[in-house]
């Protein structure tokens, strides 16, 4: 028995040593501070150390490793000497210091522009990327006037434009194996990696608004908005679970040679489950999206009862226009039974991408209305029946 205990002890010690020696980007637990409780977010950790907050983004693609660490420093304390801040910088040597609230930001996605405006901090948006994809008239107008700087492509922003915007920080979406951010690393100012889209639950992604609230000086607003979203979402989920039927759903459509479908652990995959609908790819353990061939989707999900897809077009999609894109759609059960619903994101009145990432309750409501019309929640907000 003693021999067995000794072996177990040695094993535990060995594992601990391996973890502690796994490199500078490995996740490490640090002592001290008060952890800010997050109920749903799995890739975000925030710890208060007095006036300072340490934020760690867990790497969504490499379990047990850290994507980025930030130390949030209030502007009022930026120029004062602090033993606590010095200690934190020593404890987190690779952490990036972010002065809060951020007053001038380059924001590379419409999603985060909308959230920042919702938090009442739209004036902090001084630069954007991919302006043609930002479905927010106010930002479009300010960009046309030159009040907001067009910083080019969202994946490779133009450094000179960012410098001209005199931004304090940039919010940019990270991607697996992206190879970094090129010349942005020469800039010397904080790169806030918005990895919220890699969460494995809808409320997990929405909960990241607490971080953005802290970054822009709107912490209380973010908490209030999230509490409302959470309450609405859970009420809707409870309604859906009482439905007697559980129809199957297929999502999106072919884009070139690939059909990108939400992965089983993606936020949309989770919303489908919470709407009490079945999904052919629910057993997939990844988040994000899955690039599949048309034949694969047809084989696994061709018999789905309902087809819901997003598209961007000046003209509303019809069954005829769908066939002109791909004759294979005619083989889908939902197509044959006229159970297709489209979300036209090119419609200026359709704020799907601006609303739903941080208000998943609105998308859940659409899914429940379409999957369970007997619940009688009214008309869908984003998806409309194809004619």
Task: Give an overview of the whole structure.
The chain has 387 residues and is an alpha/beta fold. It is built from 15 helices and 18 strands. It is globular, with a radius of gyration of 23 Å.
Quick structural summary:
The protein is of the alpha/beta class.
Distance between the first and last residues' Cα:
73 Å
Q: Which parts are unreliable, with pLDDT below 50 for 5 consecutive residues or more?
A: 1-30
Measured by DSSP, the beta-strand proportion falls in 15-25%
Count of extended strands: 18
Q: What profile does the largest beta sheet have?
A: 5 strands, mixed
Strand order, biggest sheet?
1-2-3-4-5
Number of helices: 15
Instruction: Give the integer mean of the pLDDT values.
Output: 90
The structure class reads alpha/beta
Shape: globular
Could you estimate the helical fraction of the residues in percent? 25-40%
Radius of gyration: 23 Å
């Amino acid at each position: 028995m003693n021999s067995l205990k000794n072996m177990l002890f040695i094993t535990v010690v060995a594992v601990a040593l391996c973890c502690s020696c796994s490199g500078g980007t490995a996740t490490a637990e640090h002592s001290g501070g008060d952890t800010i409780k997050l109920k749903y977010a799995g890739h975000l950790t925030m710890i208060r150390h007095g006036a300072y907050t340490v934020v760690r983004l867990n790497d969504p693609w490499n379990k047990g490793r850290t994507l980025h660490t930030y130390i949030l420093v209030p502007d009022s304390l930026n120029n004062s000497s602090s033993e606590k801040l010095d200690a934190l910088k020593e404890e987190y040597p690779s952490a990036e210091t972010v002065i809060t609230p951020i007053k001038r930001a380059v924001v590379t996605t419409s999603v985060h522009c909308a959230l920042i405006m919702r938090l009442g901090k739209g004036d902090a948006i001084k630069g954007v990327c991919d302006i043609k994809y930002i479905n927010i008239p106010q930002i479009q107008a300010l960009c046309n006037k030159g009040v907001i700087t067009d910083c080019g492509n969202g994946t490779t922003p133009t450094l000179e434009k960012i410098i001209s915007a005199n931004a304090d920080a940039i919010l940019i979406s990270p991607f697996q194996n992206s190879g970094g951010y090129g010349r942005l690393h020469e800039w010397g100012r904080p790169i806030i990696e918005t990895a919220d889209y890699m969460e494995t639950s809808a409320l997990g992604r929405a909960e990241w608004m607490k971080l953005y609230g802290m970054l822009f000086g709107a912490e209380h607003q973010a908490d209030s908005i999230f509490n409302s979203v959470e309450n609405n979402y859970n009420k809707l989920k409870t309604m859906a679970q009482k439905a007697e039927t559980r129809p199957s759903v297929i999502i999106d459509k072919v884009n070139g040679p690939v059909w990108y479908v939400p992965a089983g652990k993606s936020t949309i995959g989770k919303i489908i489950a919470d709407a009490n609908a079945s999904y052919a790819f629910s057993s997939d353990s990844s988040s994000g999206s899955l690039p599949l061939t048309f034949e694969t989707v047809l084989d696994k999900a061709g018999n789905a009862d309902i087809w819901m897809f997003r598209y961007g077009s000046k003209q509303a999609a019809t069954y005829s226009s769908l066939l002109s894109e791909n004759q294979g759609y005619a083989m889908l059960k939902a197509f044959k039974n006229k159970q297709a619903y489209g979300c036209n994101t090119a419609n200026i009145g359709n704020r799907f991408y601006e609303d739903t990432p941080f208000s998943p309750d609105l998308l859940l409501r659409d899914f429940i209305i379409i999957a369970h019309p007997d619940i009688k929640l009214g008309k869908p907000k984003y998806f409309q029946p194809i004619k």
